[in-house]
Amino acid sequence: MSEPNRSLTCPRCSAGMEPGYIIDQGHGTRTVPKWVAGQPRTSIWTGLKLRGLDQIKVATYRCRRCNYLESYAAG
Ligand SMILES: [Zn+2]
What we know:
The strands form three sheets. Strands 1, 4, 7 and 8 form a four-stranded antiparallel β-sheet that branches. The chain has a two-stranded antiparallel ribbon with strand order 2-3. The chain has strands at residues 17-20, 24-25, 30-31, 34-35, 42-43, 47-48, 56-63, 69-73. It is mainly β.
């Protein structure tokens, strides 16, 4: 799977959007959020059960004019 078109247009104001990403900052770690299909299943050990599930990194585009954010599970 490829990233969305780099010349994305903002759906709110039609200005250009720039690619980027949002970080999750934990205790001494920084990660990029990921998309997982289905409903979350909790685990008392790790918080969430993710074994065997595909995890797709999330790319987030930001509008240069109105600051609107739009996210894509870009693979
Ligand atoms: Zn905009």
